């Protein structure tokens, strides 16, 4: 395995850092964002979209998931750890306590461990759940990125942004149709909320052979 970048400084990771990551497992990233790319303020999101919560649950259930400490702490305590998933949390503090999850002090270590877990579980995807720095670090090794694009704004305090995947030339995008949510709300007042699910698939760069894709399951709220 290559040198493991420290979590501090937020350097991107490459496949040289993931020498122990198993073949046949893909790395996916999933998030929701405003049309301007805002994903939250580190603790909350500027919308409530039940359809996206269901989509997130269906997509990630049964798989290993990787997230930073702040994203872990932002989870509703009722769903921490995320049920039905092998939770991996990144923290600079090796003594950090994340009950129900495995703590790692490096992002490559967390992703590699999650990949080995996927192999043991018989699933073919590891999902990266954020936050913003973690997403940006993982773009060079991501095979697939699933983004819920929400047609709303965000108050000024919401400053955390996702990577601009449309600027990534190693991916092609399939944009889903715009849909309406009768129950969705936004802090900026848009109602009904409109959203679409966009899937970015790596076509160049990354690994020479793309792994098989896994299907999602259904289950609990998150």
TrEMBL record:
Q: Which PROSITE patterns match?
A: DHFR_1, DHFR_2
One function term, GO molecular function aspect: NADP binding
EC number(s) for this protein? 1.5.1.3
**Listed pathway(s):** Cofactor biosynthesis; tetrahydrofolate biosynthesis; 5,6,7,8-tetrahydrofolate from 7,8-dihydrofolate: step 1/1
Its cellular-component GO annotations read:
cytosol
Name the InterPro entries on file. DHFR, DHFR-like_dom_sf, DHFR_CS, DHFR_dom
GO terms in the biological process aspect are: dihydrofolate metabolic process; folic acid metabolic process; one-carbon metabolic process; tetrahydrofolate biosynthetic process
Superkingdom of the organism of origin: Bacteria
Checking CDD domains in the record gives: DHFR
| Class in the EC hierarchy, top level | oxidoreductase
Keyword set, alphabetical order: NADP, One-carbon metabolism, Oxidoreductase
Q: Does the keyword Oxidoreductase apply?
A: yes
Return the Pfam families for the record. DHFR_1
Do the record's keywords include NADP?
yes
Q: Which part of the chain is the DHFR domain? A: 26-202
The similarity comment for this entry is: Belongs to the dihydrofolate reductase family.
Listed name of the protein? dihydrofolate reductase
What is the phylogenetic placement of the source species in the record? Bacteria, Bacillati, Actinomycetota, Actinomycetes, Mycobacteriales
Q: Which gene encodes it?
A: folA
């Amino acid at each position: 395995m290559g040198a493991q970048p420290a979590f501090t400084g937020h350097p991107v990771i490459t496949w040289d850092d993931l020498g122990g990551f198993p073949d046949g497992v893909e790395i996916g990233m999933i998030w929701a964002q405003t049309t301007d790319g805002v994903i939250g303020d580190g603790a909350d999101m500027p919308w409530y979209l039940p359809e996206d919560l269901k989509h997130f649950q269906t997509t990630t259930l049964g798989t290993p998931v990787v997230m930073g400490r702040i994203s872990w702490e932002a989870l509703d305590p009722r769903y921490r750890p995320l049920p039905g998933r092998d939770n991996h949390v990144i923290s600079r503090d090796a003594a950090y306590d994340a009950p129900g999850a495995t703590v790692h002090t490096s992002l490559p270590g967390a992703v590699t461990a999650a990949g080995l877990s996927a192999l043991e579980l018989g699933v073919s995807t590891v999902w990266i759940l954020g936050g913003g720095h973690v997403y940006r670090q993982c773009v060079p090794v991501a095979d697939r990125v699933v983004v819920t694009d929400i047609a709303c704004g965000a108050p000024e305090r919401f400053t955390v942004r996702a990577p601009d995947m449309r600027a990534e030339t190693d991916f092609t995008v399939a944009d889903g149709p715009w849909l309406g949510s009768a129950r969705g709300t936004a802090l900026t007042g848009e109602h009904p909320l409109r959203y679409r699910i966009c899937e970015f698939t790596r076509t160049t760069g990354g690994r020479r052979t793309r792994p098989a894709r896994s299907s999602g399951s259904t289950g609990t709220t998150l």
